[in-house]
Amino acid sequence: MRDTQKMALIGGVAAVVVGGTGFGVYALVGGESDDGNGSVTSSDDGNRKEVKKGPPSAAEVRTTAQRFLTAWSAGNTAKAAELTNDKSQAALALKGFRQGASISKVALSPRSASGSQVPFGVNAQIAYGQQRSAWSYDSALEVVRDEKTGDAVVNWKPTVLNPKLKTGQSIKTGKAGTPPIKAVDRNGAPLTKEAHPMLGSVLDDLRKRYGDKTDGRPGVETRIVDAKGKDTGTTLRTLSKGTPGTLKTTIDKKLQVVAEQAVKGKPKASAVAVQPSTGELRAIANSPADGFNNALRGSLAPGSTMKVISSAMLLDKGLASPGKAHPCPKYSTYGGWKFRNDDKFEIKDGTFAQSFARSCNTAFITQAKKLKDDDLTKEAREVFGIGQNWQVGTGTFDGSVPVQSDAQMASSLIGQGGVRMNPLNMASVAATVQSGTFRQPVIVSPSLDDRTLAKASRTMKPQVNNDLKGLMKLTAASGTAAEPMAGLSGDVGAKTGSAEVDGQKKPNGWFTAYKGDIAVAAVVPASGHGGENAGPVVRKVLDAAG
What we know:
Layout: E1 5-10, E2 13-18, E3 25-28, E4 32-34, E5 39-42, E6 49-52, H1 58-73, H2 77-82, H3 87-100, E7 103-110, E8 117-128, E9 131-145, E10 152-154, E11 170-175, E12 181-184, H4 200-210, E13 220-225, E14 231-240, E15 245-248, H5 253-263, E16 270-274, E17 281-286, H6 294-297, H7 307-317, E18 331-334, E19 337-340, H8 352-358, H9 362-365, H10 375-382, H11 406-413, H12 423-435, H13 462-478, H14 482-485, E20 492-499, E21 508-515, E22 519-524, H15 530-533, H16 535-544
Parallel strand pairs: 12-15
Antiparallel strand pairs: 1-2, 2-3, 4-5, 5-6, 7-8, 8-9, 9-10, 11-13, 13-14, 16-17, 16-22, 18-19, 20-21, 21-22
Helix pairs in contact: 5-16, 7-10, 7-13, 8-13
C-alpha cells in the first residue's frame, strides 16, 4: 500500500497527519508539543526540528568530548567553544590558555567515560622566550544537554582547562615575581631556612621586599593568577628557578645560633638582639620555628620591663630620683582599682632605686595622680621611638602605648592596661638606655632602598640617662635580675617583667638587658617570673656576644 498524506483541521489548527504501516505521528504546525519520548518538536519556521531532552547518551558523550578535544588540540578555539554551553567564556579561556600560558602545542587524550564525565590527559609544550618545557597533567569534562537546542555540549568550567583553576582565574607563564635571594649575615656567612628555620618567615619577607634590588634574576614559572593578574601562589610548572642575588643582612650568625638554641623547647618563646650603637638587628629567634613571629610581630603586655620607660618619664619630670625617698606601700589605689606588689611586699623608708631594683608596682602607681593621661605615651614615642612607623626592612609591630585614663593609665605605668610590646621593642628600649639615643632597629641597610628611618623627636637628658643606667645596673647586681646576670660587670643593666594575662595561670615572663654594645630582650609566655624564665635566654645571648 502506498503511503498517504491528508490535511485536517483540529480545533481550527492545521495539522499534518502522517499515516502508514499502522501508526501515526501528529505535530501541530506553528506550535510545539512534547512527543512523550524525551523530545520536543518545533516548527516556528515551517520546518520541524526535534529538541532532545534528558541526559545525553553514551554515544553523544563520547562524540561530543572527542570533537571538543580535537578542536582544542588543533588550536581551533572558536570551534571548541561552540561545542560548550558558555561559548563566550570558553572562547576567552581557551584563547587565554594558548597565549597567556605560552602553549605552543597541546595533545589531549580522552579516556573511558564514566556516565557524563570524561577524563582526559593533557600533554602541552610551553614555549617562553628561548625556554621550552613539557607539561603533563590530568583533567576532566562533563557533557550535558543544552536546554535550548537539545544538543550534547561540554559543560564549561575553568576546571576543564586545569583542575586547580577557579572562577576568575587564568594561567600565565612568565617571570616568577622577584628573584630568589641568597641572604648572608653581616660577615657574609649564608643564612638559609634549612639551617635557620626560625628565620624562615623573615627570609621569605626579605625576598619579596629586596629580591629585585639584588643582582639576582627571577625564574620562569607557569602559575595561576587572579582576575587582576596577581599571583595566587599556585605554581603549576617551573621552567627555571632563576639566579639568587646576594642580600646582606645585619644578623650575626653566631648570635643567631645561640638565640635559636636558647628559646628552643620553650613554647612561644622569642628573643631579639640589637646593637645599641647602630640599631642593627643581630639575632631573631622564635619557638616553635614554624610558629608566629612573636619576636618582631608580637603584641604582648610587657609587664614590669615597661618600668624602664616609666622611670625615664618620672626622672625627667622630677617625680623620682634614685637616691631620694620614694613610697613603696603594699597597696595603692587609683581610678577605683587597688594595686599591689608581688607577694604584697613593701619597702619602708626606701629609695626609688630600691623600688626599681625590687620592681615595686606601687612606687609607680602612687605617682599616677601627678601625671597627665598622655605623659607616658609621649615619653615612649618621643624618646624611645615606640609607636612610630619603623622601617626595619621586614614586617614588625612597633609597640603601642595608647593614651589612657584613670586605672588604665596607672596600669600602663607597670606594663599592663593597653600597653603592647614584643622582644624587638624591648631590646630597642634597653639599647636606647645603653647608648642614650634611640636608633631605629634595622635588618637591611636603608641605603639599599633609600627608606627613611624613624627618629626620636627628643633625646634623653644626660642626667636622666645616667640615672636610668644606674637603676638598671643595680637591678642586675642585686635586684630581681641578679641571678641571670650574676658574674657580669662593666657596662651592664637589666630589668625583669611578669605580665598578668586573663585566663592564664602563670604570667608572661619578660627580661631585657644590655652588656656593652649589645642589648637583648626575651619573652616566655605563660611561664612565670621573668628573671627565672626569660632571664637565662637573654644571658646566653649576652655571653655569646663576648
